[in-house]
Design brief:
five-stranded mixed beta sheet, single chain, 22% helix, globular, alpha+beta
Length: 145
């Protein structure tokens, strides 16, 4: 089965929201109904930036992929934006003392086998709203059924 981008994206969005304790929008700011904090600042926005099929060594040619994501942390102060970016970085890349990653990213029918930071554009401000931009790569495979 080919990697399903939307399935991986929603799993990443949910993992970021759970680990940071703040809402994460999918391509747009979160709504008032989004869990856990609605659209209250600070929050994050996940932007899927596409991916590529990576083929073996993980398995089926169509079943492996590298997916690129931008996570924008939005806040009312520069310090708060950087704090959220730190929380996201810990959620995506943080490891457990027992080995493995501290935050599970569990897309249905897929396994995330690798994670890495691609780029950090850092902080900017526009109209009194601060943002911090980071990009992450997820390496995903679809195990044999």
């Amino acid at each position: 089965m080919p990697v399903q981008g939307r399935v991986v994206s929603t799993a990443l969005r949910d993992a970021i929201a759970a680990a940071t304790g703040r809402s994460c929008g999918y391509g747009a700011p979160p709504t008032t109904a989004d869990k856990p904090s609605g659209n209250a600042i600070p929050y994050t926005v996940l932007y899927p930036l596409g991916g590529t099929a990576s083929g073996p060594p993980f398995g089926d040619q169509a079943g492996d992929g590298r997916l690129l994501y931008q996570v924008t942390s939005v806040a009312s102060t520069g310090e708060q934006a950087e704090w959220m970016a730190d929380k996201v970085r810990a959620a995506v890349l943080g490891t457990s003392p027992k080995g493995g990653f501290a935050t599970s990213i569990s897309p249905a029918g897929h396994t995330v086998v690798g994670r890495e930071i691609d780029k950090e554009d850092g902080q900017s401000v526009a109209n009194g709203v601060y943002s911090y931009i980071s990009r992450y790569l997820l390496h995903v495979t679809t195990p044999d059924s």
